[in-house]
Design brief:
The protein has 404 residues and is α/β, with parallel strands linked by helices. It contains 15 helices and 15 strands. The structure holds pyridoxal-5'-phosphate.
């Protein structure tokens, strides 16, 4: 490992507050470095004001902090313009805005949208609410036998000429990394607008939205070492300009009368109401922190953690492994034969090992795999090999108990 793990862990106050926990629920949310708390504290203590509204200096300071965070995100993603970064409250909110916004200007009755079997509900249910009732049809890329994105089937489904292709960068349930460069290239060649759900992908690798040529990329701050309540909908200007706002209210307008309103320019047009200013500042701080880290070393470390855990699980009888260790962003999903995943997770919880059990907001994926759910172990840069070994020991004991 070419970084100092114990120095890294010291930057995360959670670990000194709770040394007893092994936290392997990182796909649900990550812990935050002190730098994020400091930035948010500082904002509330010395700048707290609303943004874009008031004439006073404090509001101007708050606006500068807020807009600087937007620029930090734009530079992090290599977006062409800061106005291509729309603040949302998270990936879910971003998808609801996106799907609602596409309906009419881009999508009409009879049009097709292509998603995959691996999608999180955030990239399924908004289509059900905002698009299917208006005649849009949803096609689904199937899984290969080893629970991967079926590229051959994808290419065939592109022949149906979907107007939008919307795929997760990394599966939140299995950890498998999609070949996003190929997906974007093929989908664009077929004439589709391409959306990537980056909720899990953003922390795995540095994204260059221009090099990738993706039209929309969404993620949540809390899965990038930032706070909850903030997320990003990145879009190319020409597509964002088409989106109808989902939320109406203050700041998103240019003029309002009792009978009509006209809308503001990007990005404000899609950001009605008082935004989560402190959280935006916190996400900016998380990204600045991350830019000082060695992301390649983090990737290699997570890959090694997954491999070690996976190899250990292979030695434990009666475990069904749903994820493979290759091209995996840090997640191992498994089941104990004939047992409910919650039983295993409860026994691990009793030993202060935090994992998640269930269908992980990806119910259709589990139906496709024909399994009821899984126990999900998700690793982050701050996890150690020692934690992997202690988890394997606890898992062995739990499996013995449940198999008696
Ligand atoms: C792949 C994926 N998409 C979307 C989401 C939704 O993110 P949020 O709950 O932060 O809106 C998640 C959260 O787990 C996710 O993993």
């Amino acid at each position: 490992m070419n970084f100092d793990l114990s120095a890294l862990r010291q930057e995360f106050p959670f670990f000194s507050a709770h040394p007893e926990w092994i936290y392997l629920d990182n796909a649900a949310t990550l812990h935050k470095p002190q730098a994020v708390f400091d930035a948010m504290n500082e904002f509330y203590r010395s700048q707290n004001s609303n943004v874009h509204r008031s004439a006073h200096g404090l509001s101007q300071q708050a606006t500068t902090a807020f807009e600087t965070a937007r620029t930090t995100v734009a530079q992090f993603l290599n977006a062409r313009f800061s106005h291509e970064i729309i603040w949302t409250s998270g990936t879910t909110a971003g998808f609801n805005q996106l799907v609602f916004g596409l309906m009419g200007p881009v999508l009409q009755s009879g049009d097709r949208v292509l998603i995959s079997s691996m999608e999180h509900h955030a990239n399924i249910v908004p289509w059900h609410i905002h698009a299917l009732p208006f005649g849009v049809e949803l096609d689904v890329v199937p899984l290969t036998a080893d629970h991967r994105f079926d590229m051959a089937a994808f290419e065939e489904l592109l022949q149906l000429k979907p107007k939008v292709v919307s795929i997760s960068h990394v599966s939140n349930a299995l950890g498998h990394i999609q070949q996003v460069a190929d997906i974007v290239r093929l989908a664009k060649a077929a004439g589709a607008i391409v959306v990537l759900d980056g909720a899990q992908g953003i922390v795995w690798q540095r994204i260059d939205v221009q090099a990738l040529d993706v039209d929309f990329y969404l993620f949540s701050g809390h899965k990038l070492y930032g706070p909850t309540g903030i997320g990003v909908l990145y879009g190319k200007t020409r597509y964002l300009a088409l989106l109808r706002p989902l939320l109406g209210g203050g700041e998103m307008i240019k003029t309002v009368s009792f009978t009509q309103s006209s809308w503001n320019d990007l990005p404000y047009r899609l950001e009605a109401g008082t935004p989560n200013i402190a959280a935006a500042v916190g996400l900016g701080a998380a990204i600045l922190w991350l830019q000082q880290q060695d992301l390649t070393a983090f990737q290699q470390h997570k890959t090694a953690l997954v491999q070690r855990f996976y190899d250990g699980c292979k030695q434990i009888p009666l475990l069904d492994l749903l994820s493979g260790p290759t091209t995996n962003a840090g997640i191992v999903a498994l089941n104990l034969k004939n047992e409910h995943p919650a039983d295993l997770a409860t026994l691990l919880d009793q030993q202060n090992i935090a994992v998640r059990a269930g269908t992980h907001c990806a119910m259709p994926l589990f139906n496709t795999m024909n399994v009821k759910g899984s126990v999900r172990f998700s690793f982050a840069c701050y996890n150690s090999f020692d934690e992997v070994d202690r988890t394997l020991a606890a898992l062995t004991t739990a499996v013995e108990l449940l198999s008696e």
